[in-house]
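Practice set, problem 2.
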Amino acid sequence: MKFAASLVVAFAFAPLAYAQQQGDVTNCTIWEWDKTVDGYIEQYPPRRVSAGETCTGSRNCAISASGVEMYDWTKNVSGLPYGYFQAVQAGLDEEQSGQEWSFNDSVLGTIENIMELSPGTSAYMNFSALRYCYVGTTQNCTGAVENRTRVEVCEPMYRSTQTGEDDDDYVLIMGGSYVLVNISREEVDDYDDPYANLVRSGAASAWYNEAFVAAVVGLSWFLLL
């Protein structure tokens, strides 16, 4: 199974989440980009991406992280639904005078890194992904959120790396930074590998979760009935 296919399966949840939220949130259909504010980079909250490890030798030891993480677009106004990213996409396209401008609402990206532990130390690895943010205002709103409400919207940052000759032989690498979090030796067993249930598929760094894929396939059949 290719990584790209996993990405499509994961994206299938976005419209469903959007539909589920429409009954109890504001419906704003327009987002106007404030181009007087330059785009800027922020970080997502850190996530643990490795098991806890202890370096017991006399030399530095390797600690590694290898898996995938899903990052969704963010907004600082809670009353707007997930599907409001479509208004953001439209606002960016319009401001670019018809130029295609991609705003990524969700990215399933590869986590892959190796760091060094000093002898006698214990730690796990955290990863803080990057997001690129814009500022704009709402329009054509019904509900609690008013027109001209200032909204920060951010999309996950990544790069695409080709892993083979076919167009779908690629992986998405999340942008961000890794850091070691020191713990005691006694705490190491409390931190299992967060990707223990992921299965490597084909190309390097391509992963999927068998249980997750089975659940999505089952849901798809249910929705078609």
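Problem 2, part (b): a different protein.
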Amino acid sequence: MDEERDRGRIAGFLEEERRMTRRLDGLAPAGRAALAASVAHRLLPHFRVFHERTGCGDPLVLHGALDGVWDLLEHGTAFDIVTVGTACLDQAFVAVDFGHRLTGTSVGETWRVANGAATPLVENAVHAAWAVASACHVAVHSGVLETRHCLRYGRDAALASALHRRSATTHPAPDAHTDPLVERETRRQLRDLELLEHSGPTTHVLTTLRQPVQPDRSQP
């Protein structure tokens, strides 16, 4: 029964991925950029808290890069994707390097730092920097795959936060599909996607996507 249930869940996951890809492919390029930017916008506070706690990194670099995406969407102001993208990835490497030193992992194990080896504080700082870099990439190149990556970073950050909250209790580890924090992020992503499908990246929609986000300061 377990094997059959697992096969069913895998099939459902793959179908969900295909369905999401079709919907993203149907969005206008500016709509995909706005969707990616909305996820990055929600993740930025994680990097700000990481900087406040550790003194590492520069959240203003990521804020400036994401402002460039919003300016492109609202005013058509172009930016240099190579310069901006590299600066964002440099901030990710700062967080990863801190994670290496914190956990004793090697440089070749970056994926472990971003996926459970380090604390949520570090993991979500990496996710935030990657999300901003992806949003910049989508704004210039309109890629569906990079948009999907951005959506995944949002859910991964929610899952990391959920794991931290559960670790201090007797509750079992959260399920990636049913934990309330992951569900909340997924609902926001779907709401934003539906808004962009219906109205496009109008000034009103972009203002809605950029609503202020309060940082979670409870993570170690």
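Answer key, part (b): The longest helix spans residues 29-54. The CA atoms of residues 48 and 60 lie 9 Å apart.
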